[in-house]
Amino acid sequence: MARPGGRSARVQASVHAAVREIEAEQGRAALTVPAVAARAGVTPSTIYRRWGDIHELLSDVAVERLRPEEPPADHGSLRADLTSWARQFLDEMASGPGRAYIRDALLGDPDGSNAGRCSAYAAEQIEAVLARATERGDDVPTVEAVLDHVVAPMMYRILFRPGELPPSYADQLVRAVLAPPPSHA
């Protein structure tokens, strides 16, 4: 892994910016290592050395784009916070660009590290929601339960069942994960 800061960070920032600019200006088909290198002001060998190929570069860029920019909003209750977060997650991931970023993140990820980073982003957001709820004295599910019962079904539907996913789908998943366990009387 490259060290943070310094030249390595500048190269990464300029290469990522070049990918975004070329894609916006000329479309996805124009994304080649030589074109990105020329726009970023680096040699193609720099890109090959750091990312391997265009798919791994696009995966790295996608993972950065999938990183949440802000902590989840505080709406005053676990249900409201988790529902708001789940709706936003679903909206972003199920959008055209979101689906493309997910595909890119997975396509150029031979060792699974980028998928792990994406999972960690979701877990961090969920942890923030659950920590606030714990501080309020709410009974909270585990992070893993929310990942398994809210995030995983969404991602499955986004990746393998194309079509519209309404906000009510996120609401339904949150209700289910927060429902009290059935009593066995």
Write up what this structure looks like:
With 185 residues, the chain is mainly α. It has 2 domains: 6-52, Homeodomain-like (Arc Repressor Mutant, subunit A, Orthogonal Bundle); 69-178, Tetracycline Repressor, domain 2 (Orthogonal Bundle), CATH 1.10.357. It has helices spanning 6-26, 33-40, 44-51, 54-66, 78-94, 96-107, 113-135, 143-160, 167-178. Helix 4 runs parallel beside helix 7 (113-135) and helix 7 packs across helix 8.
Largest sheet: none
Supply the number of helical segments: 9
β content, as a range? Answer: under 5%
Total number of strands: 0
Helix content range: over 70%
The CATH superfamily of the largest domain is identified as Tetracycline Repressor, domain 2
Unreliable spans: none
pLDDT average, as an integer? 91
Element order: H for helix, E for strand = HHHHHHHHH
The computed structural class is mainly alpha
Cα distance spanning the termini: 54 Å
- Number of folding domains? 2
Radius of gyration: 19 Å
The gross shape turns out to be elongated
CATH class of the largest domain: Mainly Alpha
Write down the CATH topology of the largest domain: Tetracycline Repressor, domain 2
CATH architecture level-2 label of the largest domain: Orthogonal Bundle
